[in-house]
Design brief:
With 227 residues, this protein is mostly beta strands. The chain has an 8-stranded antiparallel barrel. 22% of the residues are buried.
């Protein structure tokens, strides 16, 4: 709830901004290089004891579209915007060999491969960027954003039932960047960011609980047109 109250307050500040302020709307595209770190844990019988852990990292490049409004004074300004990734991002499939001892006494023990993978979709970031004018056409800024997305997790295992389940993925994004606006309205932005997502969990029908904690670092280049 606090997230949406802050966004509402900022939007209201835009509406009530002095008419003398310089307000502009920018639409554009971004390309970002990302490093997604995932810390996974498995609790086989969901009793609060972690039976296995796994940390993995995925590097990928993704594009997005953004729309933002900037209110600029003589020295300081603030931007309110939204960024949307219209593509799915896959968390690479990871596999590990396992021997199951279930039924060993009657010869039913087996070996095989466990695997887990995920797909992130509808990734949307709402952000606020207060900044300071540098020179005539540039602004240094810090950014704070609220992220929402969907993640579909798939897992196959010898020790628990297979799962395919979609969860909501929320998080917070912080960043620093620089924006330059040319005389003809062309906007260029360079931004470094970190996103910390809320921990998500999946529980199988035989009560195995798996959790994943995701963190992403990114470097993004954006180009847009100011109106």
């Amino acid at each position: 709830m606090k997230k949406y109250l802050l966004l509402l307050s900022t939007a209201l500040a835009f509406i009530l901004a002095p008419v003398a302020a310089n307000a502009n709307v920018t639409a554009g595209i971004s390309i970002s290089s990302n490093s997604l770190d995932t810390a996974g844990k498995e609790d086989v019988d969901n009793n609060g004891t972690i039976d296995d852990t796994k940390n993995v990292s995925d590097d990928f490049t993704v594009g997005s579209v953004f729309l933002e409004k900037t209110v600029m004074g003589e020295k300081f300004g603030v931007t309110l915007g939204v960024d949307y990734i219209p593509f799915d991002a896959d968390i690479d499939k990871r596999s590990i060999s396992q021997s199951s001892v279930k039924g060993k006494s009657d010869g039913a023990a087996s070996t095989g491969t466990n695997s887990v993978e995920g797909t992130v979709s509808d990734h949307t970031t709402f952000y606020i960027q207060p900044g300071m004018r540098v020179g005539t056409n540039s602004m240094l800024y810090v950014s704070y954003g609220f992220v929402t997305a969907d993640i579909e997790g798939k897992s196959t295992s010898l020790s628990h039932t297979d799962i395919t389940e979609t969860k909501s993925l929320d998080g917070n994004k912080s960043a620093v960047g620089i924006k330059r606006v040319s005389d003809n309205g062309l906007v260029l932005k360079l931004e470094a960011s970190e996103t910390s997502y809320d921990t998500i969990s999946f529980t199988t029908s035989n009560n195995t609980k798996a959790t994943a904690d995701l963190d992403n670092t990114a470097l993004a280049l954006s180009i847009g047109k100011q109106f």
